[in-house]
Amino acid sequence: MAALDKAQVIGVIGAGAMGAGIAQVAAQAGHSVKLYDNREGAAAVAIELVQKQLNRLVERKKFTAEQVKAILSNLQVAETLGEVSQAGLVVEAIVENVDVKQTVFSELEAICSPECIFASNTSSISITRLSAGMLHPERFVGMHFFNPAPIMKLVEVVSGLVTREDVAQTTYETAAAWGKMPVYAASTPGFIVNRVARPFYAESLRLKQEQVADCATLDALIRHAGGFRMGAFELTDLIGHDVNYAVTCSVFDSYYGDFRFQPSLLQKDLVDAGYLGRKTGAGFYSYK
Ligand code: NAD
Fold it and tell me: Where is the 3-hydroxyacyl-CoA dehydrogenase NAD binding domain (predicted)?
């Protein structure tokens, strides 16, 4: 099974941290990309941010100005969801909420061709559950990028119970053609990475809650002794506590309250206070 042809348009729904990054990756690979967000102006702001980041890479000689111009010409704002109707692949990266995601996909089913692949960047929600009720659940797949999407190589290609094999294969080959390192996974809550890594982070949060050590010490330990690129506190500050807390709750519920995945009250406090991490200037650490 081959990757999607470069002539195929890619629709990206949600222009937050992940959607903007995924749109950049697809545009860099030569696809024409339509980026849609239901928050007015959000997609345009996201493209401006991508532009700033790419310009920095020109200064650091990672790209030429011509390459950046070509990438940016591939990136377009979709003012309405209807503008992604010509896409061969739609990647959804909106809020981690089953109902909201299902509503968007049912709207997409009404406008896209039955051959279009529907992919969700969900971190934790069952692909089988998300596709339930769709007219064509067999063309639905998880395409789980990691943050920041233009830099992180790993992509989990997640098959639900009824995902067609060729759909997963095309998604896998497309991720590879985009310079990523895809892996296949069956749809289980948290897939592979969030399942394996989450208990490490949960334990760090418990240690912090019990005042055993401070965030910097615990992060350093996870990095140096555990071999992770980031510790729990710096990583969740990067992910965004609203997003991470929602993912933890979803994994916890999906495993019927398994203690290993129990959400942290410390993190809930941060969400309640609006201390969402880097994006708001403060989380476990201050970024002001
Ligand atoms: P975000 O909050 O930064 O962005 C979400 C965007 O979706 C917002 O701009 C919002 O306006 C938009 N949106 C919400 N509802 C919408 C709708 N109905 N239609 C169109 N746009 C809508 O979130 P994020 O961090 O980019 O995460 C998005 C998804 O990616 C979530 O499912 C999350 O679990 C997953 N994910 C996040 C990370 C991470 O590190 N942040 C990593 C991997 C996967």
Answer: 10-185
CA distances from 260 to 33, 51, 226 (A): 39, 41, 18
Give residue 281's region: left, alpha or beta (phi > 0; psi -120 to 50).
left
What global pTM score does this model have? 0.94
- What's the sign of the alpha-carbon dihedral 161, 166, 167, 170? positive
Q: Which of 124, 188, 127 lies closest to 162 in space, CA to CA? A: 127
The ipTM assigned to this model is 0.99
Which protein residue's CA is at the shortest distance from atom 43 of ligand 1? Answer: 146
The answer to whether 140 and 131 have CB atoms below 8 angstroms apart is yes
| pLDDT tens-digit series, residues 238-255 | 999 999 999 999 999 999
Q: What is the pLDDT of residues 152-178, one digit of tens each?
A: 999 999 999 999 999 999 999 999 999
CATH class of 194-277: mainly alpha
Domain ranges of the chain: 10-186, 194-277
CA of 17 to the centre of ligand 1 (A): 7
**Residue among 14, 70, 7 at smallest CA distance from 42:** 14
Pocket residues: Cβ below 6 A from ligand 1:
13-19, 37-39, 42, 93-96, 100, 104, 121-123, 145-147, 239-240, 243, 247
* Distance of alpha carbon 170 from the chain centroid: 19
Which CATH class name applies to 10-186?
alpha beta
CA of 211 to the centre of ligand 1 (A): 32
Q: Which amino acid is at 58?
A: V
